[in-house]
Structure prediction request, 406 residues.
Amino acid sequence: MKKSFLQSLGPGLLFAGAAIGVSHLVQSTRAGAEFGFGLIWALLLVHLFKYPFFQFGPRYAAATGETLLDGYRKLGKGVLITYYLLNFATMFTIQAAVTIVTAGLASQLFGFTNDLVLWSTILLLISLIFLMVGKYKLLDNLMKYIIVILTISTIIAVSVALFSTKDAFDVTQIIPSGTVELTFLIAFLGWMPAPLDISIWHSIWSVEKDKTAIIKTKRKEAIFDFNIGYIGTLFLGICFVLLGALVMYKSGETFSDKGGVFATQLIKLYTKNLGQYSYIFIAIAAFTTMFSTTITTLDASPRAMNRSTKLLFNKKLKYGYWFWILFLFIGTILILKYFMDNMGLLVKTATILSFLTAPFYAILNFKLITGKHTPKEHKPGIYLKILSVIGILFLIGFSVWFLTSI
Prediction:
């Protein structure tokens, strides 16, 4: 019995759904708005050098039938405790950041209220119902449609922008300098295409998919699925940089750090420059971008915390996933209610922390996939190993550069 092309896709599209969010809509658009085409080099480099460490998630899951968290436990309890604390410290901020931007877009798209906390609660409840009713399988199927809608609407938006512009393209690449520009670059790279701990989420989704599938996913299928999702995140990252550069570069617009205000500015600036008829394509592209991230992060963080808790305490909670998902739901609403004015700072802190912890996850994933816990036939080839070493040096080098420059 052979899988169809669509059946073979799953965790890779969930990865894309989680990755294509704040990093693309906010950070990539801002990169284009503030630097034109000047940061394309950074976008390409970070995708290249993070590639192995994201790929090792589905590779390890296909090789062992386990998540990366199971592998981290084998590397030592201290490793898993470190992950547990890091994830606990950032998961509420990350969920709040993606939800508030989605809420801002929803208020623009659907109207009826401008209360972003109310919109955030509605969106989180819709996501929660999806996950309660359909569990992994519905999320898997839903994401295929969301990614298709997102891709088509983004391509249309970029095409309109390209045909509308009368300015000559300046593709000169820029190396940011100064604390403000450098901080933006690190925040941009931190969540582009996603924080490295999403490799853990990917391995969890891969194991979940095999629980619902008749045929177990082979390594080649898992990597093919991942590559489709990863190429998609790169393509759409470039699209959003182009949109920012074509529509916003040298516009004189100052962008707000508040997610809801930024969302309003984003759509208004697009429609002002591209025409009112482009509104629906921009709005749908932006909303589906953020809603996909809202629902996938609401699913993934609780799965990761539940699995980590079981591995650390050797105790399985019957409703552990639902405990963590409700805990995340309540924590996110409280952050949005009481820390709304500080969301810009919270997001910046989370993105920088994501970049500074990237070497930690890169080294762990590399050590796990090349070590004794991975069967020999599933270990990466020499070229992927070389790219991994260069990638680790790149991530460490950039972190040191940032810490010594601020």
Residues 130 and 213 are 20 Å apart (CA to CA). The chain has one domain: 5-405.
